[in-house]
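dumping these here so i dont lose them again. two proteins, back to back, each one seq then structure tokens. dont judge the mess
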Amino acid sequence: MNKNNTPEEDGFEELANNRAARQYVTKGSHTVFFEVYFQHYIKYPMAEFHRDIFRITEDQSNKLAMVVAFRGSGKSTLVTFSYALWSILGVQSKKFVLIICQTQAQARQHMTNIKHELESNKLLQSDMGPFREENSNEQWAISSLVFQNTGARIMIASVDQSIRGIRHHQYRPDLIILDDIEDINSTKTMEGRSKIFEWFTREIVPLGDIGTRIIMVGNLLHEDALVMRLRRMIDKGELKGVYHWFPLVDEDEKCLWPGKFDTPEKVEDLRRSVANELAWRQEYMLEIISDTTRVIFPEWIKTYKELPAGRATRIIVGVDLAIKETKTADYTAMVAMQVYGYGDKAVAYVLPNPINKRLPFPDVVETARSLHAALKPLSQQHPKFMVESNGFQEIYVNAFAEAGCEVEGIKSVTDKRSRIALTSHHVRIGKILFPEKGAEDLIAQLTGFGIENHDDLADAYSMGAAEFIRMINVPVPGITWINIGGPSRPRGRSIWDDDDYDFEIDSSTIWGRR
């Protein structure tokens, strides 16, 4: 022992000179395993969040763990590379480790890194080897590494590869590592996000067995991305797992890696090198950046658990019609909201499970009739249907009326974005509330407007919400309501003033009346 050494340095010196002690200690600690065999990866003093990641990998009680960390944090090195090896060579004694990346190129790179280290790291070979690569006659992506001394296997695949039912001898995967399986393009639309969620729940989770661990590493790309969906399920108690979030600079403006960025100036230098402020905030600060086309932001959405007691003052149903009936056509959407209260005290509660289907003309009318019958007992008045009546759609207005629905046709004279923007203030101040469950697709279309492939629910919502706003006549910043005259009142008694049925928007016309 060197009297000038710290106890930690003495410990590592002993390990360096004692093979048996080194094997024993490194098998029991992922942290020591990494520091002993992969010192060449440590360019800067490790931070506490690195220790947190080691603890996550060592704690087998967490069957699902998500690690979201800033770019360049070393998360893939510690989890996808080092933990994959230690889980087999250490006390966890995994038999089949499966690493899945988004693309084949990423999977190739991870395989190359692991293979290179096993071939060139003499100390690791001496203590833990020998190792060999097993090649399949099939495509490269199912090539794998087999450890002769344990019989364990590491296999790497890509998201688009079929791996249903894979086994290594009698073993199902007992450790599945998902490394950056999403990107900006895959999370851009609701269809893309739902596809990866379905893939995870239907393809990945069933791959394992009792005791299988799933660890995800990545970044924050969208508030509805897979890691965020799973996090919400964990927060609600619907799923058991842990979520860890490591931005470069935390909410207290404290840098999480002081060993590398020991001054604020170094953090600032990195920020300037990134050059793109949005990329900096998303990749390093782990902020989900809203697209500039958005008119309603996720943080504005306010929810309710239960509807108020008693019958609603009014029920409004916005209807967005799809004229075409082809497989690629839009959906017909009907979004209902119950209004409680009067004037500036009124609040609209969007009802869960809105209708969103491809429906032929007769079914649209029958659906409206059935919805009218179901909602009528819940309100002091007949439900009011707001139906777009541009061109051919006029026949639906007449058909709804003949089916016994109180209906008003409205002609759109501006774009959908403007119509949704009209409602954004009322969403933000809590005059329009959404259910905690049952409106996920609607909320996704509203907060992702301009990005999502479909906007049927959002458009139906905008028609119902516009009617609610017009009825309560609550001032909107920058918008003035004016009376331009119009049709007679719809059939049925109304609690609203006669002139409330005639409106237009000064300087930015949103709707014309039927």
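---- next one ----
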Amino acid sequence: YLDFVPPHFLAIGVLPILLGVTMWLQFKLNPAPMDPTQQQIFAIMPWVMMFVMAPFASGLQLYWVTSNILTILQQWWLYKKYGLHFSDTHPATA
């Protein structure tokens, strides 16, 4: 018998945490936004979505996590194929 009740710590399970982490990685691989407001939204949104998606069905969360992982792999493959580096899409700020 397996108990699939979410843990009491933060009242969320593993899938919402994976969703937040994969969304954060996906945003990090995308080109850096120029607008400071957009940068703040991209920094906060993955962690907010982690709690927003916690009560949703696990199938939806699994779909979103899988989609994020495939997008991360695709972006990594394109960067590798065309010789781009993370620093090319994220210029250093002074």
